[in-house]
Amino acid sequence: MGNLLSMTPPSMDLFGKAWLYGDPRHVLYPRNSTGMFCGIGPNKAQPSVFYFDILKCVTSINIMATTLNGLQCPTTQVCVEKCPDVFWALNPIAYLPNAKPQDYFNQSLCVPSFDLARTTLKVKEIVDQELCPFFYTPTISVLGRCLPDVTALKNIPNDFANTWGLPSSINDTVNGIRNAKGGIVNSFNAKEIGVRIFEDFASSWQWIIAALVIAMVVSFLFLLLLRFIAPVMVWVLIFGVLAVGAYGIYHCWWEYDNYRKSAVSITDIGFTTDFKVYLQVKETWLAFLIILSVVEGILLLTLIFLRTRILIAIALIQESSKAVSHMMSTLFYPLITFVLLVVCVAYWGITALYLATSGIPVYKVVALNSTQDNCGQISGNETCDPQTFYNSTDYSWCRSARCIFIKYNNEGLLQRNLFNLQIYNVVAFLWCVNFVIAMGQCSLAGAFASYYWSLNKPSDIPTFPLSQAFIRTIRYHVGSLAFGALILTLIQIIRIILEYLDHKTRAAQNPCSRFLMCCLKCCFWCLEKFIKFLNRNAYIMIAVYGKNFCLSAKNAFMLLMRNIVRVVVLDKVTDLLLFFGKMLVVGGVGVLAFFFFSGRIRLPGSNFCTEMLNYYWMPIIVVVVGAYLIAHGFFSVYSMCVDTLFLCFLEDLERHDGTMQKPYYMSKNLMKILNKKNRGPKNGKGKD
């Protein structure tokens, strides 16, 4: 056992220490001035932290950031059960010699270790030492922090302090908060908007789910109906593109004919930023006419010479629809991929959180007012313990001395390698995400390949083909998938590094370096796309033949290169069809949601009305985004089916000749298009 432990990689050992010593409470829960967490432990009944003077968090943040890298607000903070929601200021008569502090202060908002009933301090001493707040404004709890309620502050007069006989410092502080001095409340209204959006979701969630169910049903029906409507849709879309091009040619000719007699030419105009001027000369429309005519001619020639390959693409799309109809469970496999991706994201986030909080918090003594008394003697390098600092008399000679959280300890092997471990965590996250996607592609490819290589369909299709393919993938192909995912991860890491370097050096770059950086980013973007394409086809070959990644990638690439024209035609026809399908689902459901949530259509017997919503566009956006994700999930499965059947079809053509020993496995429709057939007793066995 000792030998096994000694063989553990150092990075894994450090990760284990991070999980052991990390404390996410530093991020998840607020803390008071003594370093105690609010909402747990002794302060379980006090979930929010209250700041005595929140404006100090802003006025001193620049100094703290540049000198001490401090992360805690330099004002007294206490855990409270409820954030104060009213304005209160200490009555000026409380400063009289005979005034009793307990008659003017609220014990629940004072420092816990300070007892108003037993103190011998005067009110001024209590205020100077920030043992109790001498005023507070209406606040609301945001992530456990009592932050100013801007809406309530607007109702307070600008000169209220002078009117009520209060110190002018209170007036300045409240006005600074209200006017967002230092950017402290630039986004406080976001909470109010968020509450309204939450109310909209609470009143319309049933209809949002109904719209998403409609999107799922429409996507499902569209894929199933492709076996019947694919030829019509493909030809309609192709001739639609040609018709649009023909109309463009006619329009350009018409505009050219209108300006043909004009004496103004493009040389008379020269260069101008007003592009409308160029549309008033004949040369512009003549150029458009020539370009569109050339493009239209290329499309027509392509259609004439590639009509057979277009018919093959249509037949494969129809065959894919049949395959999906025989294996309906494949349409819901993206849910498994989604769950696994959520697990990857959760593990990465939790690990990053534990790594970030694995050091011991470091507190240092800071003087909020260095000009007061002898506070200038505090250098800011003295460490302190917040749980004992405020009960000691070590710094009683400086009333503005505070024990402030500065950072997490960066000493020790674990702390010195935190940055490297975070990078390692990101690499592992990308690798896991790519592996999960690869596992889904290989599992789906195995299921669809079992459909194609069944000679008598559907009787020869295996029982539970997707489950069997998933088990085979987990049992035999994990190493190949991990290797392919690693290659893609390395490319993505290089792209991230390039983006980081470009961001850091953008201000110092000259035109030559910017051009070089742009070229590098473009090249690695293209490389990532190519690796994804190669990996996808390699996983299909792995699912079909069970060979290793390198050999499968080589065989898939060579097979595609031998049929490059078919690859391009099928890819573009499929992309056009699936793009139209996505637009149909998203556009149709989006328009329906718009008319419903805007109140233009009402369902009989429904008590829902648009007046119940604060922002009717929010559920519409959710429906549109959700419909797109649903359509993308369904169509990604269909696209994988088309690619798998296409590779199987190419393999079928190269390995078989239609004899009894080597019969074709393709459908009758494909054999008819290619003028091929199975000979002998098995003639006609390759049926739909």
From TrEMBL:
Transmembrane spans: 205-225, 232-250, 285-306, 331-356, 428-453, 474-498, 538-561, 573-597, 617-650
Location within or outside the cell: Apical cell membrane; Cell membrane; Membrane
Recorded GO CC terms: apical plasma membrane
Entry keyword set: Antiport, Cell membrane, Glycoprotein, Membrane, Transmembrane, Transmembrane helix, Transport
Principal localisation: membrane
Keyword Membrane found: yes
Topology versus the membrane: Multi-pass membrane protein
Known catalytic reactions: choline(out) + n H(+)(in) = choline(in) + n H(+)(out); thiamine diphosphate(out) = thiamine diphosphate(in)
Pfam families, per the entry: Choline_transpo (PF04515)
GO BP field: choline transport
An MF annotation (GO) of this entry: thiamine pyrophosphate transmembrane transporter activity
Family indicated by similarity: Belongs to the CTL (choline transporter-like) family.
Record-linked PANTHER family: CHOLINE TRANSPORTER-LIKE (SLC FAMILY 44) (PTHR12385), CHOLINE TRANSPORTER-LIKE PROTEIN 4 (PTHR12385:SF37)
Function: Choline transporter.
Name of this chain's protein: Choline transporter-like protein
Native source organism of the sequence: Oncorhynchus kisutch (Coho salmon)
Gene field: SLC44A4
